[in-house]
Amino acid sequence: MTGRTVIRGGLVITASDEMHADVLIEDGRITALAAAGTSAAEAFTAERTIDAAGKYVIPGGVDAHTHMELPFGGTFAADTFETGTRAAAWGGTTTIVDFAVQSVGHSLREGLDAWHAKAEGNCAIDYGFHMIVSDVNQETLKEMDLLVEEGVTSFKQFMAYPGVFYSDDGQILRAMQRSAENGGLIMMHAENGIAIDVLVEQALARGETDPRYHGEVRKALLEAEATHRAIKLAQVAGAPLYVVHVSAMEAVAELARARDEGLNVFGETCPQYLFLSTDNLAEPDFEGAKYVCSTPLRPREHQAQLWKGLRTNDLQVVSTDHCPFCFVGQKELGRGDFSKIPNGLPGVENRMDLLHQAVVDGHISRRRWIEIACATPARMFGMYPKKGTIAPGADADVVIYDPRAEQVMSAGTHHMNVDYSAYEGKRTTGRVETVLSRGEPVITEREYTGHAGHGVYTPRSTCQYLN
Question: pTM for the whole thing?
Answer without folding.
Answer: 0.98
